[in-house]
Structures are given as C-alpha cells and as structure tokens.
Amino acid sequence: MIDWANTTTDDFLQSVPLAEDDRWEFKSAMFLERSNKGEFQKELSKQVSALANSGGGNLVFGLSDSRVLEPCEQRVGRQPMKDYLATLVEQSVEYPLRQFKVHRIPFTGDDSNSVFVVEVDDSLAAPDQAKSDRVYYYRIDGHTKPAPHFYVELLRQRETRAVLEIQCVEYHVEKFLGTETGIVEVLMVLPIRNVSFQSATSWGVLIEHTRQDDSWEIRPTGEKLDEARCFMGSPTPLLPQASTRLCIPLRGRAYDQAGALAAVQKLWKSVGFSFRPVTQNHVGQPIAFGDWPDRIKTAVAMRELDEQLSAVLPRD
C-alpha cells in the first residue's frame, strides 16, 4: 500500500513493478508538455478507459518504459498540473469518471520537480468508453487494447454497488430560541446523486459531530450527536443517475453569560459535521461542514450565520 501523501520518488520506485502490467502504465513526461496537448488527451482517454474497465490501476506520467524518472511540467498556465489532470481525467470517458485520484510525487531531495500518478479505481459505471475515439478499452498482458464485445457485455451485466455522492452542504436557520441558553434549529440540506448503475433501495446519511459532545441533536427524535447517527432517506429507491435532496433537521444548544445570541455564535464557530452517504451495499465518501480552517473562512461563516439569524429573530 503506497502512502501517497508522504511518498517521494525513491520510495515510489520501490513500489512500482519492473515492467508495465495490467495495473501499471508508464508514460513519458513529454505527454504533459503543451506542444503535445492533442496526443496527450487521446492517450489519457484511452488509458483511463482501459484501467477503469479492468478493475483499476495506475497511470504514471514521468516514468519511461525502462523506469527512468523524468520531471514533469508543474503547471498549465496558472493552473497546477494536479488540478489540470483531475479535470481532464474526469471528462476523458463516458460517463464522467468518479473513482480516481491524482497524486503528485516529488523528486527525492527536490520538491520543485515531480512525477504524477493517476490512480484509477474499479469503475462503478463500467464499461467506460474513451471519449477520444468512442472505443471501449481494457488491459491485458500489460497492454491497452480495444475490449472485445463479450467483455463489454460482461461489464454491463455485472452486479455493482449502489453508490451515492453528496454534492455539497447547504443550511437554513429555521428558528432561534432562548434567553441565557441559546437554542438554534437548523435544516441541513444535502443534494445527493446516485452515481452508479444500481438502485439504492435503502439509503441514508451517516452524521458525525467531530467534537462528539451533546450540543447537537437530531430533531424531532432528540438523538444526540455525541456519536455517529444514521438519518435515513426516503423509502422510495433512488434510481441510477437520479438526484434528490435530503433535509436533516438539527437542533443545537449552548450557554454563554453574554446571552443567547452570543451562545449560538460561539456554538456555530466550533461546529464540525461529517456527512457520509450510505446504501444497502456501499459506504460513500464523507463531506465536511464547519471546522473552519482559518480566520477568513470563520469570519465568512459567522457573517452568513448572522444574516440568517437576523431573518428569524423576533421583530419589535
């Protein structure tokens, strides 16, 4: 298992096979040069299709067939190469690929240079067709080849998992109560999409409060978020590629000597939720809300809260 976050090229070479195989494809750094943009996009589309249709694998840019490291371009215009690759990989096949990550592997002793690895997982939407030439590819004997008809049909017929993706987190302050103890009722709104080709017959969202105290609860059940709780979605199955919105009513309470409003502001400044979609056969990727990383984002979050609070405060 590669520790992508802490790996440099010396460690990386110890994990890479001596030659390309069904899970590893090596490409020269020249593919990422601006002058080769057209050829690069065609090759990317082809290799991503093959790996996604073959259980996943790794596409390395900056490593020759003889395992010689080559420093890659680090930016495309003002955009970091890692972000540029992520955008192109997602759109390189039909349907857009979700199950992948892009890793930047710095040269040992020289962080200014690196290779890039596109880590592709087994695609839940397989078969994935290369957009460049409308061909389905797969990996066999360490090579990328057009997939035969029977292989494509097997991919279409295989049993897959029902995978949900939370697009973002929105919220609405519905009520503000209290004198000394501040109580705020908030509706968390989660746009959710079924990104797989299997219906989610039983689904919901696993909610965690990162501080694991009893300051937040689910209403109207009163379940405290001092541990992970599952909020179930509609009993109606969420069909493949369909979208919906899950609304989770929460209540938070806090005390502050300065009064209820100060208590709620203090509560919100320290809020931290994790929302993770779950189905009958899959646990999805979490999306975070709160735990503001710096003073600027905290200030923006507090200003938005104050605007929403002012809309529900009783008027004289």
Question: Which key features would you list for this structure?
Answer:
alpha+beta; 21 strands; 22% helix; 316 residues; six-stranded antiparallel β-sheet; Methyltransferase, Cobalt-precorrin-4 Transmethylase, Domain 2; five-stranded antiparallel β-sheet; Immunoglobulin-like
Number of domains: 2
Which regions contain 5 or more consecutive residues with pLDDT less than 50? Answer: none
Gross geometry: globular
User: Which class of the largest domain in CATH terms?
Assistant: Alpha Beta
Termini Cα gap: 63 Å
* CATH fold description of the largest domain: Methyltransferase, Cobalt-precorrin-4 Transmethylase, Domain 2
> Order of helices and strands, N to C?
HEHEEEHEEEEEEHEEEEEEEEHEEEH
Radius of gyration (Å): 24 Å
CATH architecture of the largest domain: 2-Layer Sandwich
Mean pLDDT: 90
Class by alpha and beta content: alpha+beta
CATH H-level superfamily of the largest domain: Schlafen, AAA domain
Biggest sheet overview: 6 strands, antiparallel
Please estimate the helix content.
10-25%
Number of helical stretches of at least 4 residues: 6
Count every beta strand, where a strand is a DSSP E run of 2 or more residues: 21
Beta-strand portion reads 35-45%
Organism: Rhodopirellula baltica (strain DSM 10527 / NCIMB 13988 / SH1)
Pfam families: SLFN_AlbA_2
Protein name: Schlafen AlbA-2 domain-containing protein
InterPro entries: Schlafen_AlbA_2_dom, Schlafen_AlbA_2_dom_sf
